[in-house]
Amino acid sequence: MRIKSAEFIISNSDVTRCPKDRMPEYAFIGRSNVGKSSLINMLTSRKSLAKTSGRPGKTQLINHFLINKNWFLVDLPGYGYARVSKSTKKVFQKFITQYFEQREQLVTAFVLVDIRHKPQPIDQEFMQYLGESGLPFSIIFTKADKLKPKAIDNHVEDYKNILLETWEAMPNYFITSSSKDIGKDEVLGYIQQLNDDMVVE
User: Fold this and answer.
1) DSSP secondary structure letters along 107-150
2) Which CATH superfamily includes the segment(s) 6-200?
3) Taking the model in full, what pTM does it have?
């Protein structure tokens, strides 16, 4: 897939105010320092479509971007950000949950995970929530340029071992690096495939 156009449409914390269009949506979510904004900018070939910041937790709303005039990329607030207040965190969790449970246009979620770290309980818990809710998702491992190939393989294997304790199969996953454009074609190709499948149906 080649991204010809990418435009910001709306930010809000109220799922009922999300776009009414019946276009497919792909939601990106992860812990607040996982490199989500950089990944979105890499995928869309736009340097500042999603706002990057040295301060984690910058995304605090549901952000809709219209891609190629026919699908939405949805940038969701990071979960597990320790420096926001408990009350703010509850608000985040409420509208994130509402988005996933009410948004019929959602095709799949992409859960971003920093490949440099061992499996984190908060990521596992969020994936468990998606699985129990019957919500399809893929894992995007970020910052792959920071590790050697063998270390990447080892960390992915760690995830497989832990997830297969409760899952029948390892979820679909991608290895990416925003600074090196690694994984861009694979992620966009997957989205294109899902869009094509819906047209065929």
Assistant:
1) EEEEEEEETTSPPPHHHHHHHHHHHHTT--EEEEEE-GGGS-HH
2) P-loop containing nucleotide triphosphate hydrolases (3.40.50.300)
3) 0.90
